[in-house]
Structure formats: C-alpha cells, structure tokens
Design goal:
Elements (H helix, E strand, L loop, with lengths): L14 E13 L3 E7 L4 E7 H4 L1 H9 L5 E10 L7 E12 L13 H6 L1 H4 L3 H23 L3 E2 L5 E2 L11 E4 L2 E5 L4 H11 L1 E9 L12 E10 L3 H22 L1 H6 L4 H4 L8 E3 H10 L13 H8 L6 E4 L12 E2 L2 E5 L1 E6 L4 E9 L3 H10 L8 H5 L8 E7 H9 L20
Helix pairs in contact: 5-7, 5-14
Catalytic activity: tRNA(Asn) + L-asparagine + ATP = L-asparaginyl-tRNA(Asn) + AMP + diphosphate + H(+)
Subunit structure: Homodimer.
Subcellular location: Cytoplasm
C-alpha cells in the first residue's frame, strides 16, 4: 500500500510503501539510518542488514543525497523520533540517483543558499516555514469565511497608485501607462460597497530600494474591507484575525515550530484584545527611552517600533498617526483633524509592522480635496471618488503582510525565508 509520511500513524505495524527522497543517511556495519522526506513530512528509515540481506543493505549504503526512491517497510512507533514513528525498511527501489547534490549537511553561506533556493526549499527548516505559511493561509480563509466575508480578486495591473507612484513598478499597457499593484485596497473598497464585507489575498509589489530583513520587492497581502465598520470595529476584526491564525499554527504545526526551535510560550499569549498606544504617547515613550531625534510628525523606523513592542507581550496597536504622514484616503479624527483614524499593528520580538489599517474617508468633498492636496489625477481617481457619490457609508479596512507575519510566528530572522522564491533588491534568480 502506497501512503504519504504524514499518514504513517494510521498504519502502525503494517507494511507500506512511500515515494520519497533521501535527505541524509548514516550507517554502521550492520544498520543504516535513512532520513527520508516526501514533501508531506520526514521519517527515519532503519535498514538492518540481517533483516534485508546483503543486496538491499548494499543498495541502502550506496544511496546518495536527494536520490528519489520507493521505500517499503513496516511502520513502528518510536518515541525518540520528533514525528513519533519510524520505518523498518524491507526493500528499496531507486527511481533516480542524484549525483553531486550541491547543498550538503555542512554550513553554507546565505548567497549560496539563495542561488540554490530551488533546492534549499527541500531542507527540513525551509519545509517547516512553508508548512507554517500554508497553515496561516488556510486559517485566513477559515476566519474570513466564518465571519461572512466574500473573497474578491483585485487587479494586479492598475492605472493609478493608492499611495503615490514613487515606489511602483511602471510598465506599458499597450498605449497607456500602468503599474504593478502595491495594494488592492481601492478596488476592495468598491467591492465592499457591493458585497458588504470582502477580503483579497494576492501579490503586491513595492519598488522600494530596501535591504532590511523586513522587506521584499514582491510579497503577498491579505486585505479586508468592511462597509459600515468604523475605526473601533476595524481594530477588533484585526485582533480577532491575528489571534485566530496564531492559535491555528500552534494547534496544527507543533512539529514545524519544534523543528524551528520556536519558543511557543510567547505565541500562546497572543489572544485578543491587544494593547494600544496613541502616536502622541508613543512619541513621549520614545523620548523617555532616549530616542531624542524623533519629533512629532515623523514616521517611525524599525528601532522605534521595536522599542515600543518590547514593552508588550502581545502585538500592539499604534493609533492616530499625523495626517501628514499617512495616505490621502484615511478618515481624520473628528475631534483632532491633524490625526487620522488609523493604526499600525506592531508584532513583538522585533518583527515590526504586520498590519496597517484605517477608517476610510467617506465624504466626497473631503476625499476630493485630499486628492487635490496630494497632487493626484482626478481623472484617474474618478471611479474611486464616485464611490462617495452613490450611497457612501463609513467603512474601514486593513492590509496584513503575509511574509512578515510568517517570519514572526515561525521565529525566522529574515523574510527571504518566508516566501518560496523571494524577490529582493538584487535578486531575480531563481
């Protein structure tokens, strides 16, 4: 019977066959230990010479790293194994022999591993990160479907930019100028006016020449928009959603978190509600911590966000930023028009902003004035302005960056490990 490794717990003491690759091996005179992987997981295969005979044992000892195999054996419980099971091998069939596999068990430099990303993905560490990424995506759909949201797909090619064109990739769209999307938000607002509560999940692009561990050129965003939701409603959805995905990873990715050495006690505390600090109070706090260079009206950098986050065990909302440093579409506070009804959600442990969100302007005249103030084309934004002419309502939304969230939950240092094939400032290969 052919099964996958993750199904092994259903076949204890039974003979099965798995299609797999050899990740690593070690052997003595009488026993060979094969580290096998099949994409679903990892299991150790134990080959005992006296059980299988000289021919099969010689075949096992001759196996090369990343050769593909059919391995037949009996599933046995093994409490020493992280997986809890091992395979007592009875036979091995070599499908394809791998020769001179470049990524050996020794240490390799980052650039070498990035050049070989198509192979590095096979490693146990990268496998664990990708499984956690997949669980976050699964839990995302689960949460929004349960809450009555409709999945909507905004365009990737756009004729205008939600936050200006300075960090966009431009291209020609036949005779017109077009851009790769940096956010689906504006289109999701239109969808919310039609469907009430919507969310998108897709790629976004930022032509930002940054080399920090938090930045990618191409990344994935989850962007919900909600009609009739005001600022407070928006924050509650965010903290419920983040709590849900963290708890889902804790419940369904124990083996992967253990593989990565993640301190899960920190994740177990991530349950709504989350603490909040206003931008005003954040400035005061930073001054107390010795950040004398930050002034009211400045945006926060990574050191500032990290200093604030270190005071909390959970993600923290920084709210009510100055109008001058936020995009044109954010709703001003009715009591203080110099600040807007927005919040950034800062992850603990130095991972920075994972969500940016706000209540959106729903007054046509105010939004039109903001478009003019920001020097944007009224013709390009005509359709967006029209959303405020035909039954406008208060509405809110946010965007969560998937890769930063994966990095935080999995505990890896750099976002380049959280996407299958990262696009960085100087990397378009493989």
């Amino acid at each position: 019977m052919k099964i996958t490794i993750t199904e092994a717990n259903k076949y204890v003491d039974q003979q099965i066959t798995i299609g797999c690759w050899l990740a690593n091996k070690r052997s003595s005179g009488k026993i060979a230990f094969l580290q096998l992987r099949d994409g679903s997981g990892f299991i150790q295969g134990v080959v005992v010479r006296d059980d299988v005979g000289e021919e099969v044992f010689a075949r096992a000892k001759a196996l090369t790293q990343e050769s593909s195999l059919y391995v037949t054996g009996i599933v046995q419980k093994d409490e020493r194994s992280p997986f809890g099971y091992e395979l007592l091998v009875k036979d091995i069939e070599v499908i394809h022999e791998s020769v001179d596999y470049p990524i050996t068990p020794k240490a390799h430099g980052t650039e070498f591993l990035m050049d070989n990303r198509h192979l590095w993905l096979r490693s146990k560490r990268q496998h664990a990160v990708m499984k956690i990424r997949n669980e976050i995506i699964r839990a995302t759909y689960e949460f929004f479907n349960k809450e009555g949201f409709v999945k909507v797909d905004p365009p990737i090619l756009t004729g205008s930019a939600p936050e200006g064109t300075s960090e966009l990739f431009a291209t020609k769209y036949f005779e017109e100028d077009a851009y790769l999307s940096q956010s689906g938000q504006l289109y999701m607002e239109a969808a919310a006016m039609a469907l009430g509560k919507v969310f998108s999940f897709g790629p976004t692009f930022r032509a930002e020449k940054s080399k920090t561990r938090r930045h990618l050129i191409e990344f994935w965003m989850i962007e919900p928009e909600m009609a009739f939701y005001e600022f407070e409603d928006n924050l509650q959805v965010q903290e419920q959603y983040v709590s849900h995905i963290v708890q889902s990873v804790l419940g369904n990715c124990k083996l992967e978190l253990n593989t990565l050495g993640r301190d899960t006690s920190k994740l177990e505390q991530i349950k709504a509600p989350f603490p909040r600090i206003s931008y005003d109070d954040a400035i005061k706090f930073l001054h107390e911590k010795g950040f004398d260079d930050i002034l009211w009206g400045d945006d926060f950098g990574a050191p500032h966000e990290t200093a604030i986050a270190e005071s909390y065990d959970k993600p923290v909302f920084i709210t009510h930023y100055p109008t001058s440093i936020k995009p044109f579409y954010m709703q001003p506070d009715s009591e203080r028009e110099e600040v807007v009804l927005c919040a950034d959600l800062i992850a603990p442990e130095g991972y920075g902003e994972i969500i940016g969100g706000s209540q959106r302007i729903h007054d046509h005249a105010l939004l039109e004035a903001r478009v003019q103030e920001h020097g944007l084309s009224e013709e390009a934004y005509k359709w967006y302005l029209e959303l405020r002419k035909y039954g406008s309502v208060p509405h809110s939304g946010f965007g969560l960056g998937l890769e930063r969230t994966v990095a935080w939950i999995s505990g890896v240092e750099h976002v380049r490990e959280t996407i299958p094939f990262p696009r960085l400032l100087n990397r378009l290969y493989p």
